[in-house]
Predict the structure.
Amino acid sequence: MQLGLFEHSRDVMLRNDLVVALQAQDAAGSRKALDALAEEMPHDPILADAQVLVSALERAAAQPGPPPFAAPSEAAAAAEIAAGLMPAAERSLPRGSAQFWLAPHWASLARRAARLPYDAETPQGHAAALWLQARDWAAAAEHVAGIESWRRIPQPLAWMAEARHHGHGLDAPWPLWVELAWLAPQRFAEVAARVADGPLTRLMQRFEGDFDTEGDAGDWAWFPAWCLVDSPTLAAAMDDATASTPSEPARAWSLLQSLLRLERRGQHHEVVKSRALLRACHAGLFELYMRSR
C-alpha cells in the first residue's frame, strides 16, 4: 500500500513539474520534465499532448526572430498550425488556461503578419485575426482600421465588433453589431453567439422565440429592429449605425428609431404616419411594437 501511494505521488509530482514548465513557456524545462515523466511513467496519458506543446516551444526557442510572412496564405497556414495546438493545450493544462498559453504564439504570428494586406481568400492570416486570437483587442482594432472600407466588408467588420466588445464594454460595439446583422446576418449570428455576454445572449434567445422568422440565417437582419421593440433603451447605443446598402430590415430599424423619438416628443400625428410605414415594412414587427403601446 505504501509503495502504491509513493508511485501515485511520484506520478502527480512529475506531471505537475511538466505542467508548471509548460505554463512558464520554458522550452528546456518542459523537455526535461517531459523526458522524466516518460522515463518513469511511459504510459501516462498526458505524454502525447505534452509532446505537441513542448515541440512548439522548442521551435519558437530555436527561431527567436522569425522573418515576416511573405504572403497572407503563408500566415494563414501558420495560423492553422497554431490552432491545431489548442486541443493538446486544453487536455494538458489546467482548465481555462489553454487560450492564455497560446496567446504568445498568436502574438508572434500577428507581428510577422503586420504588413500583409487583407486577403478575402485567407482572412485568418491577417494581423487583426491573429491579434484577436492573442486577446490583444487594441492591436486587433488598430489593424482592422488599416483595411480600406473595413466597415463595408463582413469579416473586418466582425473583427472590429469583437475587438470593441472585449476592449470597450457592452455598448461600444452596438453600431457595428447592427451593421453586421444587416450586411451578413449569418456571420453576425455566429460571431455574436461566440463572444456574447449575458445581456446580448438573452436578447438573441428572446429574438429566436419572439420574432416570426422564416427559419434561415437571413432572419438575423431583423434583429436590430426587433431589439428596439424589445429594449428601447438600446436606441442611443445603436444610433451611430449606418446601412451600407438599403434594405427592409435597415428601413424598419430607422423607422423605429424615429418612432421612439417622436413618442418622446409627443408628436402624435407623425407617430401615426410612421406606424403605418412600419406596418407596411413588416407586419409582424409592427404587431410586436404595438403590443407594448
